């Protein structure tokens, strides 16, 4: 008997179970695998895996037969249908920027190649534009009868929306899939947030607590975007303290004294902040210089009476 391992393509692998019986041996050349296309593999061994590559797709009957030295025989056969491997799906957004906007309508050019001989499947393929609060289905703008296509996907901007992105999940007709998103596109020009450390030195230390004064301006009239903003105090090269809860997330402009405790044996620290505003412009990481803690020397006081 034998088991078949196969998913797709022209190559099939089988694992055989072959025992001539107690005290007996196989006749010369047996057992034999007949692959169904005129090819054979002889003298196969028990528990071994054997593979065969066919020249064309189709249905084949694989036979496994053996005869031992006293004339006993055994046999097994199975049919298998070979199918072509499913090609990969390619998705790109070839324009720069990937999304454009004319004041009313957003446009995103998408290139899709479903793979040789395949088309985009209407079932399972999902392409959406997301504007921060709404999803717009765009898959119906594709051609489901072709392998390769370049399409200008269009949708209307939602009132008060200032950015959007496109998410593409494409499945081809044999089941292969791919997913790719665009970058966020900002409908309106978005000013970069500013971060300033106004004090000199930028960090002070009272023996226990480090303090860093920071002035933040999101430059868009709104508070910072919490999901993408971070404020950290570094008490050493490896110890980080999250300071994000010390600012007011509803204020566009604010000056805050961020504080954190020095850990034992720390000799230096610094502050690092990144702010993203609501229209998704980022300040990038802005850091203070390293502040070096110095121990206060112990004075010596003594006198003698002459």
Characterization of this structure:
20% of the residues are buried. The chain is 0% helix and 43% strand. The mean pLDDT is 86. It folds into three domains: 2-82, Immunoglobulins (Immunoglobulin-like, Sandwich); 90-186, Immunoglobulin-like; 194-292, Immunoglobulin-like (Sandwich), CATH 2.60.40. It contains no helices and 25 strands. The protein is elongated, with a radius of gyration of 35 Å. The chain is an all-beta fold and 306 residues long.
Please tell me the CATH architecture of the largest domain by its name: Sandwich
Give the N-terminus to C-terminus distance in angstroms: 114 Å
Helix fraction bin: under 10%
Q: Which value, in Å, is the CA radius of gyration?
A: 35 Å
Order of helices and strands: EEEEEEEEEEEEEEEEEEEEEEEEE
Structural class: mainly beta
Strand content: 35-45%
The domain tally reads 3
Main beta-sheet strand count, sense and barrel state: 5 strands, antiparallel
CATH topology of the largest domain: Immunoglobulin-like
Give the CATH class of the largest domain: Mainly Beta
Shape: elongated
Helical run tally = 0
Strand segment count? 25
Q: Average pLDDT, to the nearest integer?
A: 86
Extract low-pLDDT stretches.
Answer: none
